[in-house]
């Protein structure tokens, strides 16, 4: 340990060989979960006083552990929100690991932070935020939403003379589950705005709610919009909400964890009009921007406000805090951090933003074709036209248990990973297409299996 000798070199070759083989797989095998009892039997105890050795541990991983994990980048992994990291991003993740970077401060990682900020600037520019906007890469949309809302509340507390009895944020029932989770952690109330029939928060519904609240508005500090809901991919009315946020002294947060990537797609950019009013925005490169887990971009219009909310203070941190430099640790609820924006940065730098635009447009095109293929088949029915790359539909005549059995069989047979979801009490199927390797043939294969 802690010595690079001949054995280490031998192990390095095996590890790199496997990593390369995995990156080359086209497509990877879908794989799937196994029971703990099964894994106990084939893998057994791995942590021993003497160690089992790197080659044996790698063998166990390759033969038993990796096949017990679903390959998120498989073109027919269409459940939840998949991930499709580019080759460059995955390879550079190895470099990040090998480089022992501490990504929290400029002092320790100026070069890495510079590159991460380049990637953040590109995203901020897509959203039409001012050049002074900035933030940090965090572990996911959940962490990003929480950190943004903590900054939002701190900003309101700074601005206002009186503390309310209870703080509250506005959202809809279609907001991601992480918004309620953030509210729970912060002990703030969630005031629900009624979504329209497509599941969007509109300016008029928000205005109505604000009127209804009357003088109970005192504790409101933020309105949480969603740009691409997780279930259906619809986008709130950012333009009017942005206006109302401004005139009502509310911080406008845009949760674009999934959908924000479509800011780069000219065919959908207009749906995001008003996003430039955001005080904070979250986009997950590990979803639709071709970066490996875990990587979410959190960007503030006025980073200084967030810095005051999040900077940790202690004698041992003075050497960092006393310098007037950009420290990613200042912009979220974290301190030590992996420079997790680097694989995304490297991918952007490698292929260029045009390739990103084209790849995202491609997935959108396949989603449109999928909608058409569903319309063409008598036994399935589209819930509604997709806004982005999530397509939701029902199999006519099926009970929830039919959906579950079918979904289970698809995974078991290594065909596809598609899960039912629930929309307004109804079980339905939902596919999320973020992988440019997913083709209409893949979708048709799945639709035919539903006949
Ligand atoms: C996925 C998602 C999140 C949560 O992101 P994680 O990276 O899984 O924490 C938040 N909001 C929306 C809209 C999402 O789709």
Summarize the helices and strands and which ones pair or pack.
Elements: H1 6-24, H2 36-43, H3 54-65, H4 87-98, H5 106-126, E1 134-138, H6 141-159, E2 168-171, H7 177-186, E3 189-192, H8 203-213, E4 220-226, H9 238-247, E5 251-256, E6 280-283, H10 285-288, E7 296-300, H11 303-310, H12 318-321, H13 342-351, H14 353-376, E8 380-382, E9 390-395, H15 400-412, E10 419-423, E11 426-432, H16 440-448
Parallel strand pairs: 2-3, 2-4, 4-5, 5-6
Antiparallel strand pairs: 1-7, 6-7, 8-9, 9-11, 10-11
Helix pairs in contact: 1-3, 4-13, 5-13, 6-7, 6-11, 8-9, 14-16
Pyridoxal-5'-phosphate (PLP) binds next to helix 6.
- Globally, the shape reads globular
Are any ligands bound, and if so which? Answer: pyridoxal-5'-phosphate
* Helix content bin: 40-55%
Full CATH superfamily name of the largest domain: Type I PLP-dependent aspartate aminotransferase-like (Major domain)
**What is the number of domains?**
3
Distance, first to last CA: 57 Å
Mean pLDDT: 98
Which fold name corresponds to the CATH topology of the largest domain?
Aspartate Aminotransferase, domain 2
The biggest sheet amounts to: 7 strands, mixed
Which sequence of strands runs across the widest sheet? 1-7-6-5-4-2-3
Number of strands: 11
Helix/strand order: HHHHHEHEHEHEHEEHEHHHHEEHEEH
The DSSP helix count reads 16
């Amino acid at each position: 340990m802690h010595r690079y000798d001949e054995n280490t070199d031998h192990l390095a070759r095996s590890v790199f060989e496997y990593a390369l083989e995995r990156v080359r797989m086209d497509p990877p095998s879908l794989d799937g979960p196994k029971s703990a009892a099964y894994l106990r039997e084939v893998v057994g105890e791995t942590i021993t006083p003497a160690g089992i050795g790197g080659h044996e541990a790698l063998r166990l991983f390759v033969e038993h552990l990796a096949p017990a994990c679903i390959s998120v980048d498989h073109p027919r992994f269409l459940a939840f929100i998949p991930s499709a990291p580019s080759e460059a991003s995955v390879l550079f993740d190895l470099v990040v690991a090998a480089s022992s970077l501490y990504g929290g401060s400029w002092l320790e990682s100026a070069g890495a932070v510079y590159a991460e900020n380049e990637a953040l600037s590109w995203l901020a520019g897509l959203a039409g935020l001012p050049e002074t906007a900035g933030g940090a890469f965090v572990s996911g949309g959940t962490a990003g939403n929480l950190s943004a809302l903590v900054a939002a509340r701190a900003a309101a507390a700074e601005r206002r003379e009186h503390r309310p009895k209870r703080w509250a944020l506005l959202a809809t029932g279609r907001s991601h589950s992480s918004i309620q989770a953030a509210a729970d952690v912060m002990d703030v109330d969630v005031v629900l705005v009624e979504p329209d029939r497509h599941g969007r928060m509109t300016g008029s519904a928000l205005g109505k709610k604000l009127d209804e609240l009357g003088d109970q508005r005192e504790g409101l500090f933020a309105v949480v919009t969603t740009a691409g809901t997780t279930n259906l991919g619809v986008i709130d009315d950012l333009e009017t909400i942005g206006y109302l946020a401004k005139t009502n002294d509310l911080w406008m947060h845009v949760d674009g964890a999934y959908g924000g990537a479509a800011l780069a797609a000219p065919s959908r950019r207009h749906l995001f009009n008003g996003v430039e009013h955001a005080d904070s925005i979250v986009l997950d490169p590990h979803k639709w921007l071709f970066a490996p887990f875990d990587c979410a971009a959190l960007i503030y219009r006025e980073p200084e406000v967030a810095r005051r909310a999040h900077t940790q203070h202690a004698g041992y941190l003075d050497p960092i805090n006393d310098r007037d430099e950009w420290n990613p640790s200042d912009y979220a609820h974290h301190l030590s951090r992996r420079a997790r924006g680097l694989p995304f940065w490297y991918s952007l730098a490698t292929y260029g933003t045009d390739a990103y635009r084209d790849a995202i447009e491609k997935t959108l095109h396949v989603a449109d074709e999928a909608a058409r293929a569903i319309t063409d088949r008598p036994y399935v029915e589209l819930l509604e036209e997709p806004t982005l790359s999530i397509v939701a539909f029902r199999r006519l005549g099926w009970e929830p248990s039919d959906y579950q059995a079918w979904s289970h069989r698809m995974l078991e047979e290594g065909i596809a990973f598609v899960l039912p979801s629930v929309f307004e009490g109804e079980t339905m199927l939902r596919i999320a297409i973020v992988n440019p390797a997913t083709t209409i043939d893949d979708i048709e294969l799945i639709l035919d299996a539903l006949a």
